[in-house]
Design goal:
Number of helices: 9
Strand content: 5-15%
Low-confidence stretches: 1-20, 385-392, 407-431
Helix content: 10-25%
Mean pLDDT: 84
Largest sheet: 4 strands, mixed
Shape: globular
Number of strands: 17
Length: 553
């Protein structure tokens, strides 16, 4: 991470530096001085640009042709070419490794394990994805995730929901480290489910930790305050990249650009039409980890061409011109988007994405003051367990019945500690993590959402917009009565005529089990967000705020 922009000695030095640096600066619209306690103390803190988070590289945005770049061998016609624009953003240099995911599991077990073990169990990857009916893959089931021989290999067996939970955890740990680094927070060596750091809870004033260090304020009525979003200290959320972002980053066309002219369009993340390295020093070597032909996963003994039977370490092969590794081959990767065949045709030209479900933070309606909104709610109780006992009689090793024993089972139920009476569960039916801010979908039932006055959206869920909603249904012209009883099965009758529903998430790129065709960034496939695979991993992304290129450019 780059050098700190804040003085680490004392908060008093910070305040004096601020007062001196901005003493003569005044508002161009009112004339009042900034950082002046005598007129209210409205602050203007020094700020240069967004800090680059750990593991991220800047992807300078721009326009590109999204979609098919070669013959559609699957004849799905779901990636028709279209020119779009992607804003600058950050993306992980590599796929998330086993070791990084084990760090997440270790933290989760340490913080939530004693009280809410189910949170840890739900974070565990599915190691059984390695099993095949007619293959001996048991060593990977047992060793791939935890043995140090594989710690630099990409984590697999993680579903889309688990990947998002990892991103949320990473956001909080990075921002916690930044506060500690800047001397604004005391390090807590052994956090618990009652006092672990949560960025959203901190900004909402709901963090339960008692070791916070306050910033000195220029407001004489409130001489100390917490860190705010306006200070620019916190990083934005880590998240999965959108499909457009992932595809744009995979091509790395910045290396083929002179002025505004792209000199050579790419099929893969590298130049040329082949999958072998043309350079003299590496001539003939594979550029990525994929299946070369029928039954050929690694080459011939003595010259293992891609040097990998299954996955390869995350820093293998040559990076593309953005410095990203394994954007073709190794493992396919989850992205944010919900899958629809016509998304590329329907989505906006600027920052295209399908999957918007607009939400807002839950507030306590009993503390509304002057129309300013109520207190933001956090999950205080966490998951609730109903324990029950039943008796079982296990068999003996030699047959027959053994001694009857009593077994205690734990069943996760949905917590309902919301003062508004709303169900506090996620769409997947699992309880939210304690300490996190609660969110709800925007709704006409809440006057504060102002949906009746909005022009850009009128509801929360736009996953089916133009592809799956009533207006796009083949039954639309038959009138309201013809489809009134069909519910959400108007366009895609899941498990009958289609495997597409609102839980179908896009994954991009080829893997160690795919042929070269799927290494083309424009190819797109989907899988239910609750499922995982031995050839599917993920990497994180982050929005770029402010200038698309940074300082000095």
């Amino acid at each position: 991470m780059k050098k700190s922009l804040w003085n680490k000695k004392t908060l008093g030095v910070i305040l004096l530096a601020l007062a001196g640096s901005c003493a003569n600066e005044r508002s161009p619209v009112t004339g009042w001085a900034y950082n002046d306690p005598t007129n209210g103390g409205f602050e203007k803190r020094p700020y240069e640009e967004q800090e680059t988070g750990p593991g991220l590289v800047l992807i300078e945005g721009g326009t590109f042709t999204m979609g098919r770049t070669e013959h559609d061998v699957t004849y799905e016609w779901n990636n028709i070419p279209r020119r779009v624009t992607v804003s600058s953003f950050y993306m992980d240099e590599t796929e998330v490794s086993n070791f990084s995911y084990l760090e997440y599991l270790y933290w989760t077990a340490r913080v939530f394990g004693p009280t809410f073990p189910d949170i840890y169990y739900k974070a565990l990857p599915d190691t059984l994805v390695w099993r095949e009916k007619l293959a001996y893959n048991e060593p990977y089931v047992e060793y791939y995730l935890r043995h140090p021989s594989y710690r630099d290999y990409p984590v697999v067996g993680v579903n889309w929901l688990q990947a998002n939970d990892f991103c949320a955890w990473r956001t909080d740990r990075v921002n916690e480290f930044i506060l500690i680094r800047e001397g604004l927070l005391d390090h807590v060596p052994s956090p618990t489910d009652q006092d672990y750091f949560s960025t959203e809870a901190y900004l909402a004033g709901k963090w339960q930790g008692q070791l916070k260090v306050k910033l000195q304020s220029f407001d004489e009525q409130n001489p100390e305050r917490d860190v705010r979003m306006e200070d620019g200290i916190f990083l934005p959320k880590y998240r999965l990249p959108t499909e457009a972002e992932w595809e744009y980053a995979a091509y790395g066309l910045i290396g083929n650009t002179i002025g505004e002219r792209i000199t050579e369009r790419r099929i893969y993340p590298w130049n040329g039409h082949g999958v072998r390295n043309p350079e003299d020093a590496f001539i003939g070597q594979m550029m990525a980890n994929f299946v070369r032909g029928a039954g050929d996963y690694m080459g011939v003994a003595g010259f293992l061409n891609d040097n990998a039977d299954i996955t390869a370490p995350v820093y293998s092969y040559w990076p593309n011109d953005y410095g990203l590794y394994n954007m073709a081959g190794n493992v396919s990767e989850w992205v944010m988007d919900v899958y629809r065949p016509s998304t590329i045709q329907d989505a906006d030209e600027f920052r295209p994405f399908r999957g918007n479900v607009f939400t807002t933070q839950k507030r306590d309606s009993t503390t509304l003051v002057g129309g300013y909104g109520g207190e933001i709610l956090t999950n205080t109780d966490g998951p609730v367990y109903q324990k029950f006992k039943h008796k079982v009689t296990p068999p003996t090793p030699h047959g027959g019945a053994g001694e009857t024993v009593e077994v205690v089972d734990s069943v996760l139920t949905i917590m309902t500690n919301d003062p508004l009476g709303n169900n506090n569960a996620t769409p997947e039916g699992k309880a939210d993590i304690p300490g996190r801010v609660q969110w709800r979908e925007v709704s006409t039932a809440f006057a504060t959402d102002n949906l009746d006055e909005r022009r850009n959206y009128k509801t929360a869920d736009y996953i089916n917009y133009l592809d799956g909603d009533v207006a796009s249904s083949i039954y639309y012209q038959l009138g309201e009565d013809a489809y009134a009883d069909r519910g959400d099965k108007l366009m895609y009758e899941y498990a009958k005529t289609s495997l597409i529903n609102d839980k179908a998430r896009v994954y991009k790129g080829g893997s160690w089990r795919d042929r070269a065709y799927f290494m083309v960034p424009g190819t797109r496939r989907f899988l239910d967000q609750r499922q995982a695979a031995a050839w599917l991993g993920f990497r994180c992304a982050m929005v770029r705020l402010g200038s698309p290129r940074g300082l000095g450019k």
